Amino acid sequence: MANGRNAGDQDFAATDSPAPDIRAGRLPSEQYRINFDDAVLPLERQTALVEANRCYFCYDAPCMEACPTGIDIPGFIRKITTENTAGAALRIYEQNIFGGSCARVCPTEILCEQACVRNAEDGNPIRIGLLQRYATDHGTPANEHPFRRAAATGKRIAVVGGGPAGLACAHRLAMLGHAVTIFEAQPHLGGLNATGIAEYKVPHDYAGREIDFILGIGGITVQTSTVLGRDIFLSSLRRDYDAVFLGIGLAAVKSLDCEGEDLAGVFNAVNYIAQIRLAKDFATLPIGRRVVVIGGGNTAIDAAVQARRLGAEEVTLVYRRGPEAMSATGHEQSFAKENGVIVRHWAQPLRLEGHGGHVRQAVFEYTRLDADGRLTGTGETFALAADMVFKAIGQVFLPDPLREDGRDLLVLKNGRIAANAEGRTSLDNVWAGGDCVAGDQDLTVAAVQAGKVAALSIDVAMRQKAAA
Amino acid sequence: MADLSINFAGIKAPNPFWLASAPPTDKAYNVVRAFKAGWGGVVWKTLGEDGPPVVNASSRYGALSYKGNRIAGLNNIELITDRPLEVNLQEIKQVKRDWPDRALVVSLMVPCTEDAWKEILKRVEETEADGVELNFGCPHGMSERGMGAAVGQVPDYVEMVTRWCKQHSRMPVIVKLTPNVTNILGPARAAVRGGADAVSLINTVNSIMAIDLDQMAPMPTVDGKGTHGGYCGPAVKPIALNMVAEIARDPECNKIPISGIGGIESWHDAAEYIALDAGSVQVCTAAMHYGFRIVDDMVDGLQRWMDAKGYRSIGEFRGKAVPNVTAWQYLNLNYQIVAEIDQDKCIKCGLCHIACEDTSHQAIRAERVEGARKYFVVNEDCVGCNLCMHVCPVDGCISMKRVDDGKTSLNWTQHPNNPMRHAAE
């Protein structure tokens, strides 16, 4: 790796022209199709049957407990073994209507598959994620929704945010007989599941097709390009609807707080990933020859790997702590390395330097833990030549849409909405779930569970209200 | 190395592994390949009387897959050889000449008349084959024509035909028995009375392999219809072992040599048959599944196991398990075992608990100790049934521990609860 200390900036100064090298179409067109197709191949029937039969059908199965949505994993796997694939899919959807996406994007190695009893036996857990994908791919009815709606309750619920939390909540509410309106700020539904995850995890517009499937339950009205705090307001929603669910996610990206962050060529990784997900033709996406990604989560990995797969020659991911502190799983970290991403630990961005208003290199300071265990810079630096820099150090909750007449309508906690285990907020008819709530894991599957749990709580409240 | 050679009812072979009369032994081509691979002998696929050969159907096998494993059981609706008698006889003669050290037995099935048997025996004898095996077992196609199992199910016929064969031939006569009877001792004793030199068992079990739920027809399906066939393969081994043991310990069968057949695919399977007094074993399904090369490990594995146990020849362990096969009423009812779970090996699958809780004696409790799953045996409630040990997926995790004093033995014939106890004495 030509990445020794201070090597990068010397090379750059000696050999490079001042103009950044950013262009589209770096690869032969056929290569894009391969690079952005399924990174993990689905199981074929025979392989799925053999894998499913490896499952011990545990009683009180630890995997179920490890699934944030509590899917009956042994139950659906057993149905695969009997080739009752439609029954298997239904068993998954009963708990997780995003079962198809979760099968693809869940970090199963730290959830269900980590809990599999086979780890204790031979370190070879059942590939639950792949089996879930097999069941949902092959067992989802083509032209009809697998669930029927309960009798109409006459209650109207507003769901703000059409990401996994909002859609899961809306689906469950509709199933229980309520009339739901989803307000989504973007022109499209799906939230981070549609635009915030690497294309090769959910190719072929799977997320879009899944949303159509979810809405197939009926009883859900969708209003896109409708922004809370601009087009709609919490106080009026509370007045006009029987209940409100907020699944508004994290609207802002953390800032690096360093010089040069506003240079051209510096991007929020989340936005760039969204650009890839919404692209009709990957060959039209401009990418730098040398790319630097700053951050240690799955977003950083998704940005770095996709930069490579768009043809970037050198992609370096820089994280300020060691590998064990990265929120990206071990599996994701090795995947990045397999894709030729150079991963550098223990360095924090000091400044971004440019030429003609465009970023040309990123200067980092080495870090270490001091005697008290706090992260501190060592004073030594190195620079990496960069045509593009992606910021992926996390997203933050923006409370502004919940502020009316100069005051916060909801109690916040740790900078996000405070909600109890049922998703109830500080306001009696407002529930919240997903990334916008304090304490949730920032995972699709956790957001789905939060939406489902809130829907059940809303349903109980609505029925109590009706009975009173 | 242990000596695997056998002398089975006067038929010598370098090892006890023979291919059973079936498709793998239908032609010289196959048999020569088998001998090259190391098989100790073959029973040539059943010959019928001279004349127009039988005709076989297309689609002849049905198979049972179990949890992703192919051919846990196999059934077939193929008949006896469909090649002309003379071709088979010439090939048999040539193969025997080329492979004099291997056992070559010829399976026969002709109509139930003395002349028919006399005629074919004479022609087989001219090939210098080592012996004949009377196919009284084939359960489909031929039985409807008064042959195969139609003979094997009637002890009088078995005895009669066996006697003819002994009268009209100097070759050793092996009678192949059908398992499709209520008591295997009926036909086995008949064979002994008729003068048989040996019996071989089991032939295939009457079976419908599966129903094709789209065609609503049995499998294998021949143009929309199916018929019962003969079941074989690993699934039938326990049935065969029991029948072999019945004959081995029956005084009237008088220690008649037994060629064991049914689900043998490894040296281990073979050793079990031999322990029940089989003098040779016959294999078909495993060879049809994997090819003749499987005999390599059968020979090698059996030799190594015999060396490890100190058995120098097959005869040294043949029949050694027979004295320990007894009737239920002679089992020691004072013997008590209880399950013991090795907590270090337990992977917390809960299968022992749910099996015992739902279907047995509620003797395995499920608890959470500081959040962690723990399964433990309630000794007072455990009857020592072994179910938990069988459902546990981890080798050696659940074992059965003896808890009685090991001093006194009490069987049902002696038990105070047995109302017939005094009558029996």
Keyword list:
heterodimer, A: 468 residues, alpha/beta, five-stranded parallel β-sheet, 21 strands, disordered N terminus, B: 425 residues, eight-stranded parallel β-barrel, 29% helix, globular
Distance between the termini of chain B: 50 Å
- Major beta sheet summary of chain B: 8 strands, parallel, barrel
* Beta-strand content bin of chain B: 15-25%
| Largest pleated sheet of chain A | 5 strands, parallel
Helix content of chain A: 25-40%
Instruction: Name the shape of chain A in a single word.
Output: globular
**Largest sheet, spatial ordering of strands of chain A:** 4-3-2-5-21
Could you list the spans of chain B in which at least 5 consecutive residues all have pLDDT below 50? none
Radius of gyration of chain A: 23 Å
- Count of helical regions of chain B: 13
Explain what you see:
Chain A has helices spanning 7-15, 29-35, 45-54, 62-66, 73-81, 85-95, 99-105, 112-115, 118-122, 128-139, 164-175, 191-195, 206-215, 234-240, 269-278, 298-309, 330-338, 444-467, and strands at residues 22-23, 156-160, 179-183, 220-223, 243-246, 252-253, 266-268, 287-288, 290-294, 314-318, 342-344, 347-355, 358-369, 375-385, 388-391, 395-396, 403-404, 407-408, 412-413, 416-417, 430-432. With 468 residues, chain A is α/β, with parallel strands linked by helices. Chain A has a five-stranded parallel sheet with strand order 4-3-2-5-21, sandwiched between helices. Chain A has a five-stranded parallel sheet with strand order 7-15-9-10-11. Chain A has a three-stranded antiparallel sheet with strand order 12-13-14. With 425 residues, chain B is of the alpha/beta class. Chain B is built from 13 helices and 20 strands. In chain B, the strands form six sheets. Chain B has an eight-stranded parallel beta barrel with strand order 3-4-7-8-9-10-15-16, surrounded by eight helices. In chain B, α3 (114-125) crosses α5 (155-168), α5 runs parallel beside α6 (185-194) and α8 packs across α10 (295-309). The radius of gyration of chain B is 24 Å and the shape is globular. The chains are: A alpha/beta (468), B alpha/beta (425). The A-B interface holds A 46, 49-50, 53, 56-62, 81, 117-118, 120-121 and B 67-68, 347-351, 353-354, 366, 373, 393-394.
